[in-house]
Amino acid sequence: MRKRNQISFTVPDELKERMEAAIEKLPGRWDLTKFARVAINEKLERIESNRCPKCGELNLNEARYCSSCGQPLTSEAQQKHEEIQKLIEDNIDLFRSIVEERSKKL
Fold first, then answer.
1. How far apart are CA 62 and CA 48, in angstroms?
2. pLDDT at 81
3. Model pLDDT for residues 9-34, shown as the tens digit of each residue
4. What is the rounded distance in angstroms from the CA atom of residue 106 to the CA atom of residue 97?
5. Dihedral (Cα; 11, 15, 16, 18), 10-degree rounding
6. Cα distance between residue 71 and residue 73, in whole Å
7. Among candidates 82, 45, 88, 84, which has minimal Cα distance to 74?
8. Residue 66 and residue 48: Cα distance in Å, rounded?
9. So what's the pLDDT on residue 13?
10. 3-state class of 58 per DSSP?
11. Alpha-carbon distance 98 to 90, whole Å?
12. How does pLDDT run across 38-91, given as a tens digit for each residue?
């Protein structure tokens, strides 16, 4: 009998053999179920780690910016975003003139 909120799935034989080989190398008492549970939880943690803090969108692991709202997702992207903001603020008149010129051409 399955417990509540328990997921049941069939593992292909080839994958099962590879998992069992990996389990044999682990210290302590492991079985296929525990191994699968740990692997799935680690994957879910990695997925959740790249969720946008602003809009909640899930992004690719290598994404530096949110694909939905553009929020920086890494410290490097945040630093670059802040540098660009400062550059714009320090040169606001130049940026206004560039935008005005471009809008005249449209």
1. 13
2. 93
3. 677 787 777 777 777 777 777 777 77
4. 15
5. -160
6. 6
7. 82
8. 13
9. 81
10. strand
11. 15
12. 777 777 666 666 889 899 888 888 899 999 999 999 999 999 999 999 999 999
> Does the reported pTM lie above 0.70?
no
Measure the CA–CA gap between 32 and 22, rounded to whole angstroms: 10
At residue 22's C-alpha, the angle toward residues 18 and 42, to 5°, is 100
How many CB atoms neighbour CB 66 within 10 A? 21
Q: Kindly state the tokens that stand for 16.
A: 């099962």
Residue 11 neighbours by CB under 8 Å, 6+ apart: 19, 32, 36
Query: What residue type is assigned to position 93 of the chain?
Result: D
Q: What token pair was written down for 26?
A: 């682990």
User: For residue 73, what are the CA distances in angstroms to 18, 48, 50, 61, 83?
Assistant: 34, 12, 7, 10, 15
pLDDT value of residue 46: 64
What separation, in Å, do the N-terminal and C-terminal C-alpha atoms of the chain show?
68
pLDDT at 66: 92
Please report the pLDDT score of residue 62 as a whole number: 84
Match 């990996």 to its residue by tokens: 22
